[in-house]
Amino acid sequence: MAHAYTPGLKVIAKTVVHKTRRLPLKGEVVVKKGDLVKAEDVVATTNLPGNVVPMNLANMLNLEASEIPELLIKKPGDEVKEGDLIAETPGLFGLFKTKAHSPGTGTLEAVSSVTGQAIIREAPIPVSVQAYINGKVEDIIENEGVEIKAAASFIQGIFGIGGERRGEIKILTKDTNTPITEDLITDDCKGKVLVGGSFLSLKAFKKAERLGAIGVVVGGFNYSDIKKIVGYDIGVAITGQEDISTTLIVTEGFGEVHMAEQTFALLSSHEGKMASVNGATQIRAGVIRPEIIIPFEGETKIKEEAAELFGMDKGTEVRVIRAPYFGMLGEVTELPHELQRLESGSLARVAKVKLYETKKEVLLPRANLEMIEKK
Amino acid sequence: MKPEAIKSILATDCGSTTTKAILIEKQGDEYRLVVRGEAPTTVEAPFEDVTKGVLNAAKEVEELRGRQLLDGDKIITPQKGDKGVDIYISTSSAGGGLQMVVSGIVKAMSAESAERAALGAGAIVMDVLASNDGRLPHEKIQRIRHLRPDMILLSGGTDHGNIKSVVEMSELLKAAAPKPRLGINYKLPVIYAGNQKANGEIEKNLSEETDLSIVPNLRPVLERENLGPARDKIHDLFMEHVMAQAPGYKKLMAMSDAPIMPTPGAVGEIMQVIARKEGITVLGVDIGGATTDVFSVFKDLEKGEPVFNRTVSANLGMSYSISNVLASATLPNILRWVPFKIDEVDLRNRIGNKMIRPTTIPQSLEELKIEQAIAREALRLSFIQHKEFAVGLKGVQKERTISDAFDQSSSGETLVNMMDLDILVGSGGVLSHAPRRHQSARMMIDAFLPEGVTQIAVDSIFMMPQLGVLSAVHEQAATEVFNKDCLLRLGTCVAPVGPVKPGKEYIRIKFTLPDGKHIDKSYTLGEMELFETPYEAIEAEIIPGNRNVDVGGGAGQTIKTNIYGGLVGIIIDARGRRPFVLPEDPAERVEKLQEWSKIVNEFGE
């Protein structure tokens, strides 16, 4: 019997999390292997080339580009300040000179005799990468970054927007079925990672953002509201770079869907603790899911287990990930080998699943089931 | 191994959603499809290895065939006794999209040509930069730095013309020092396909900071495009840099007995085989999870030669890019195909959920109808892109006058002439796996709006990619399986084109069905009818309703031609062409959609 391989999202109470922290360009790693780091610690730094201010000298001086090099007052490589004279024409008997002044401060990087264009490069922009999670430097990637290892609880969402943030977990709803309403978001949400049940309205998200919450983790959200937050349609799920101050992590999907019990229970058990969250999602090659990481205080020894690549089998706990039973949990009771006809008329490989909520057994396409991974 | 010695072939196609495997075996003197299997493509954690999906799909084939093909994680090759297969080959479209920035000098000329080259090669164009695009130089630099594309295509200037503008663009590019999207250990690939007189300057500016390739100018003179070399280079660099980032791809290359062919390339191969063998015009489509590819072989009317064109709509697909179909088509255009009332927020959420859980399938009939509505729009939009692309005298070349170039709408006359089309072939999950073939026929007819007399076919079980790659290795096996097991003839669509007043006769058709029943019927605007009859030639007389209506022989001309039935039959589609209009009123529209569905027997009884 071939197994159905439908990997689920991770909801793991105790695991070893490995995080690669990489610079966007080569630079310097400022920690050593074995160092214990805090989430806020800088682990690597580099300088991005400074901003560029172009100016067309040929146009400014009204000359052919080939004539420009002879008229330069500042040479390529020279430091220049805003307003400095870069080039001037000889004028008529030393009079009526046309002058070109620098529009920025930095280095005169290049002057082209083909186009007459001068490039002024401003000071480099320092960039640093933080550890993001409390942990131990496990490995150094020379000139690029580090691998950080931490014993933690690790939870994946299905979709998110907004980048890396860190804050204290605050549970807003009493259970997984309760939506996060505006009135639940109060002044003390500032700096917190808010966790709620089945749904978050746009108004509630806006309020959380306004009050300075650093993240919201919720079961469901309306797809059309994403556009109202980021200002454009997310047509292909590649996110994480959005310019928003509150990271949003949806654990189940779009619409009103109650958060999986175990996700809610695990997050609830960590209320008051610091969590690192990231909404970055990519559902293509090199899949990235949004995540919530709650590192344990001090270094806790946890046996690192190899990822189990088991398939779906009788007794496997699954979650239905498509209508009509979307969001429900159950247990596989049978995996019929033969293709079965669905209501839609399609023939598909199915599984018989006993749904916990309705206590009924239903036939569901295996493609619409997700295994629940937990340890 | 010599082709004639090959007895068994395992071929897989690693799509972005599903990995499909087929087993072909020699039975007597001919090659036949024996069994197929599939499994989700395994690029997701915890697998992150495309070969796992391949092995799962092969495992299913093994079980269904009842003989051993795998030895642990290896495909047994060559076949020994009853174990293994003689060759294993594969295509792949996993690896994500190709994201490019293109630039030219004049937005409507070289920049447009560069965009055409990039789109044609299957890229998502993140931005089109041009000297006259209205942005200041520093804004362009900021934009390039922000984007982090996989690749940049730089063009501009006719050969031997002024080099200033294109060199200026290269200076901006150099100043921006762009970095590739994936990884920091290699330089960003930049292709220069502009004024060849500037090659030296471009090299001076860009060869150190970027991985520069120089190819012939894609617009050597104003009146002619030469997109081939730039497209080929994009393709090479895509395989080298982007595909190689797909998890497990290198392992897959080691497993395969022939080079891995990109899926659209393989489907294109087989489409050309159909056109060449039967001497016909073909329009083919392959709608996948992330992309939709459209292929055509039409006659260049001036030269009378068949011209092959392929376009890849890299962001129109049924799972990963399904939300982009919604964004591009807009909700009202999708809703117009949904044959029941649905809440807009609910519909958007369903589409969003398919995007984030791309491997799920519709279980209920309602979900199926929604997916098929979206598919119609994905197909329609991809076809629009194809028509804009398939222009010119030969291949991708197109003579354009200055006045054309300034007019965006007439920038290149399309070669796609629907009245001249012989056969429309559909492939890809939503068409090949539709529960009823009638649904596939309807989706294709609604999206492509064939004119006159057009045959409709589908790839039976979505095996064109595998047969495409096989045709490069073993043409005989590919052709035999294609003819006997792959192409399913659905029937013929007969559609009059041109204006007619409501209630007046639009088309009249006379033919005799194989069972002897004589048909002589007239249709008015908005009517459809299905004649269920098998695939065999039926002589028909088709008469236009008035002198402005064209049924394939020119305005007002009656034609006598052979029409074919098939698994669906002969569909008379008098709903109108140019324009094809659906009722504006939602209730009336839903009623019409349901009526047509019933007539064409789309969802059975």
Strands of chain B, count: 24
Q: Classify the secondary structure makeup of chain A into a structural class.
A: mainly beta
Give the averaged pLDDT of chain B, no decimals: 86
Report helical residue fraction of chain B. 25-40%
Oligomer: heterodimer
SS summary, helix count of chain B: 18
Q: C-alpha Rg of chain B, in Å?
A: 25 Å
Average the pLDDT over all residues of chain A and give the rounded result.
88
C-alpha Rg of chain A, in Å? 28 Å
| Helical stretch tally of chain A | 4
Strand content range of chain A: 35-45%
Distance between the termini of chain B: 51 Å
Describe this structure in words.
Chain A has 375 residues and is mainly β. Chain A has helices at residues 57-61, 202-210, 223-230, 261-269, and strands at residues 11-22, 28-29, 36-37, 42-48, 52-56, 79-80, 85-88, 99-101, 106-111, 117-121, 125-130, 135-141, 145-156, 159-161, 165-171, 192-195, 215-221, 247-254, 274-278, 291-295, 317-320, 329-334, 340-341, 347-348, 350-355, 361-365, 369-371. Among the domains of chain A are: 52-121, OB fold (Dihydrolipoamide Acetyltransferase, E2P), CATH 2.40.50; 158-289, Glucose Oxidase, domain 1; 317-371, SH3 type barrels (Roll). Chain A has four helices and 27 strands. In chain A, the strands form six sheets. In chain A, strands 1, 3, 12, 13, 14, 15, 16, 17, 18, 19 and 20 form an eleven-stranded mixed β-sheet that branches. Chain A has a five-stranded antiparallel β-sheet with strand order 26-25-22-21-27, with no helix packed on it. In chain A, strand 17 (215-221), helix 3 (223-230) and strand 18 (247-254) form a beta-alpha-beta unit. In chain B, the strands form five sheets. Chain B has an eight-stranded mixed β-sheet, sandwiched between helices. Chain B has a five-stranded mixed β-sheet with strand order 3-2-1-6-12. Chain B has a five-stranded parallel β-sheet with strand order 8-7-9-10-11, with helices on both faces. Chains A and B meet through strand 5, strand 10, helix 3 and strand 24 of A and strand 3, helix 1, helix 3, helix 4 and helix 9 of B.
